[in-house]
Design a protein that fits this description.
Calcium-transporting ATPase, cytoplasmic domain N; binds adenosine-5'-diphosphate; alpha/beta; 288 residues; Cadmium-exporting ATPase; six-stranded antiparallel β-sheet; binds magnesium ion; Rossmann fold
């Protein structure tokens, strides 16, 4: 039988906007000593703004933004939403066919009959193109049109207001290791990790690499310490399932994430993770 205080714990958490999908996850949460975060949309707001546009090969800032926004027409990634928002003109979806997401890389599409690639350096390398080395702190979207480098767009995200305090609270609550995993560039990851005083970060990861990192961290765990992974689940539902406890951002996160997660944060605030751990510990101290 389930002790009555479990219901108190789950109920208390739900008042904070934290949905816990079972009393076993309350137990796991109480023992969390490693918290692994996805970056975009989890520690950062996931609302990018365009900070620079560098056209090449006869493109203008507007025509480069237009081709990128068209290519991003059908992606639900926060990056795609910001590129569409940055382009001021009309976007006619009839000009776009064969659009596809390449997780952790970017998007491809056929626009006005031309093959367009919008993505990071890894994606262009896969297409056999060496991209210029960009010395900026920002996420870079390189644009390729029919194999010709058309330029790049620099976008930047901001850290969530409560992210820094959350990391401090987690450490104060005895969490030993805070880790950020991201598919973004090393420079961007280093800057966010420094701002938030994270213990550790790993950049330029594909969704499969994130699973491997989490497995390595799980293997390194000792005693009863548990690992929580927190993400918005765009491209990383597999990591949510692999962690001891998978925590999803429920408001902006994808349906797949909410499905795969054990705990859902209704308002996407990282500070609710430290609150949920506190509620879980209090509940478990009452139970035992
Ligand atoms: P994170 O790990 O930070 O949550 P993702 O794994 O979703 O990020 O994406 C990793 C990287 O892949 C991004 O930083 C970007 O370079 C590239 N990328 C992903 N989706 C897109 C997209 N829709 N358009 C362009 N680039 C993208
Ligand atoms: Mg993500």
């Amino acid at each position: 039988s389930v002790p009555l205080s479990f219901f108190g714990g789950i109920g208390g958490a739900s008042k904070l906007g934290v949905l816990i999908k079972g009393s076993n996850y309350l137990e796991t949460l109480a023992d969390v000593d490693t918290v692994v975060f996805d970056k975009t949309g989890t520690l950062t707001n996931g609302t990018f703004s365009v900070v620079a546009v560098h056209p090449e090969a006869g493109y203008t800032e507007q025509s480069l933004l237009e081709v990128a926004a068209l290519a991003e027409s059908f992606s639900d990634h926060p990056i795609a939403q910001s590129v569409r928002a940055a382009y001021q003109g009309e976007l006619d979806p009839k000009r776009v066919s064969d659009s596809a997401n390449d997780a952790g890389h970017g998007v491809t599409a056929t626009i006005d009959g031309k093959h367009v690639v919008v993505g990071n350096a890894k994606m262009l390398a896969a297409a056999g193109i060496d991209v210029p080395n960009c010395e900026v702190v920002g996420t870079i979207l390189h644009v390729l049109v029919d194999g010709v480098y058309a330029g790049h767009i620099v976008i930047a995200d901001t850290v969530k207001a409560d992210a820094e305090q959350t990391i401090r609270d987690l450490h104060a609550a005895g969490v030993k290791r805070t880790v950020m995993l991201t598919g973004d560039r090393e420079e961007v990851a280093a800057s966010v990790a420094k701002q938030l005083s994270l213990d550790e970060f790993h950049a330029q990861l594909l969704p499969g690499d994130k699973v491997e990192r989490v497995e390595a961290l799980l293997a390194a765990e000792s005693g009863k310490g548990k690992l929580a992974f927190v993400g918005d689940g765009i491209n990383d539902a597999p990591v949510l399932t692999r962690a001891d406890v998978g925590i999803a951002m429920g408001a902006m996160g994808s349906d797949a994430a909410i499905e795969a997660a054990d705990v859902v944060l209704m308002d996407d605030k990282p500070s609710n993770i430290s609150r949920a751990i506190r509620v879980a510990r209090k509940t478990m101290s009452i139970v035992w």
